[in-house]
Specification:
10 helices, four-stranded mixed beta sheet, Phosphoribosyl-aminoimidazole Synthetase, Chain A, domain 2, globular, seven-stranded mixed beta sheet, 60s Ribosomal Protein L30, Chain: A, alpha+beta, homodimer
């Protein structure tokens, strides 16, 4: 009996990604001996072709983005990566070349982030490709960063730069000049999960989450979780040189950067007295961290200040699927 | 700031399914303290509307089928359920009523099988609904059932009945007389994960897997894993009264039952000396177990005997997505 095509596909493209306990992806399930003295941290994110990535994105970056958006959830909890499971629903016409690129991207990121695949499923779909990944990480028990816990007066911090992902999508869709090989498009296709910073601010950050659906919308989650308000200062938003150039040419982009998605940066709260510690953690991990506002007593609403220091209304509430 | 629709949907339909460590499905990830002294068993299976279930299947059974096909993987490893994560990619037009039924079905099966949801993601898709579930179970370390390990001379066992799922699909598609409320259609929509039998034969079964893509094809996996051949006796196939009636009316159905999918029964190997133990485990768990053949020295091929005891060729190799 030869292998049916579905299993030959798994053997050819995915078996090389399997790690300890994955049983060569040829059993009904995988085995995992939980690391002693650690708590597990688990999250699952899905991506749909044409919704979360563009149909002509390189398959290498699609696999890596799928892994990285999930790694970003681990970063937000201050967790370290351990393993993942993945299901792929693929159109029947998916070529071996596409699969090869997809798996090669995953292999590269497995090396970069130190984790491996444990198991999953590969099925066909008459619709667009639909990818789902469950990530497993670990933390010392009780040390995971949570969304609740910020206090009035706390600084509001963000990692890296904001808006590159949304601008990168605009470039790739032809709504903004630029090219697919540039910084912005690359940031849309390849988010940078802030794992090192996330673990470095365990014990310092009072609340944390990752920014994926737009800074303003995600800040709303942090405020509801803590029952707090906040002031968000757009003038303080950390921008990459490429994003700064866009805003310089057309200032209307600035508020849109605070509502665009695909940032995958960490948004967190810390006691102002801990600012030196946060900055030291940022330096030690090579990850910029910037104060972009502060928390106030409730209600859970953000007051957004424009570059002139006056309160403004943001254009829309951020990305929602429904 | 009010909740955007996507998060309101999660809060309304899925928060009630969340268990300990799920953090109300409102953080970036879930926490899981691994049960001391147990090994984790993990699997992930996806289902696509129109491929794995019919668009007009009741939403209650769709959620339950998604959970049960994953629970069947745990049963095949002899594991006990602990928790799950789920991602749903849904068409934008999905109604609240559909979601309510889907979640109600999951709630019912959570109670039946003793597990809860830990986390997940809900996104939109322009294509058919695409559901993915990662299941987590536990076993005493080293006791998981595996696919390799059968020996020549071992009995080949199967749980429950074979062919109901494939016949149920034929009924629902109008290829076979019958009605949607009958036994066969119900078996297609609601597989029965054999968790109790799976744990009961730990230490007795030398190899095990679950039958999901057709008995003959899945037997092929067991044979390749063990480097063994087998004789499969179609006359011994356990049939439900409804399936037996179909075969009696048209005997050509019998070989098709050995290649149809959606059985979700356990297929396992055991020393003939352990047959009394297997039968006792079957009685104790209220799950039929039937000897349908035996293992032979390699190559990894199955010799299939028809009802007259003569070797036959099966019509096709089973379900493959590609």
């Amino acid at each position: 009996m030869s292998l049916p095509p579905e299993f030959a596909l798994i053997a050819r493209h995915f078996r090389g990604l399997a790690g300890e306990g994955a049983l060569d992806l040829s059993d009904d399930a995988a085995l995992l001996a939980p690391p002693p003295g650690r708590e597990l941290v688990l999250a699952a994110d899905a991506m749909v072709e044409g919704v979360h990535y563009l149909p002509d994105d390189p398959p290498e970056t699609i696999g890596r983005k799928l892994l990285r958006v999930n790694l970003s959830d681990l970063a937000a909890m201050g967790a370290e990566p351990l393993a993942y499971l993945m299901t792929t629903a693929l159109p029947r016409g998916t070529t071996p070349g596409w699969l090869e690129g997809f798996a090669a991207g995953l292999a590269e990121d497995q090396r970069l982030f130190g984790l491996h695949v444990l198991g999953g499923d590969t099925v066909s779909t008459p619709g667009p490709a639909c990818l789902s990944l469950t990530i497993i990480g670990t933390v010392p028990p009780g040390s995971a960063l949570r969304r609740g816990g910020a206090r009035p007066g706390d600084d509001l911090w963000v990692s890296g730069t904001i808006g590159d992902g949304a601008l990168g999508l605009a470039v790739l869709q032809g709504r903004l000049p630029g090219d697919a090989g540039g910084h912005l498009a690359r940031r849309y296709r390849l988010p940078e999960p802030r794992l090192a910073l996330g673990t470095a601010v365990r014990g310092l950050a009072r609340a944390a989450m990752d920014v994926s659906d737009g800074l303003a919308q995600d800040l709303g989650h942090l405020l509801r979780a803590g029952g707090l308000g906040a002031v968000l200062d757009l003038a303080a938003l950390p921008l990459s040189p490429a994003a700064a150039a866009v805003v310089e040419a057309e200032s209307a982009w600035l508020p849109r950067l605070a509502t665009g998605g695909d940032d995958y940066e960490l948004l967190f709260a810390a006691d102002p007295a801990d600012a030196p510690g946060i900055l030291a953690a940022a330096r030690a991990t090579g990850t910029p961290a910037t104060r972009i506002g502060h928390f106030t007593p409730g209600p859970p609403e953000a007051r957004v200040l424009g570059t002139d220091g006056q309160a403004i209304d943001l254009p829309r509430g951020g990305w929602s699927h429904f």
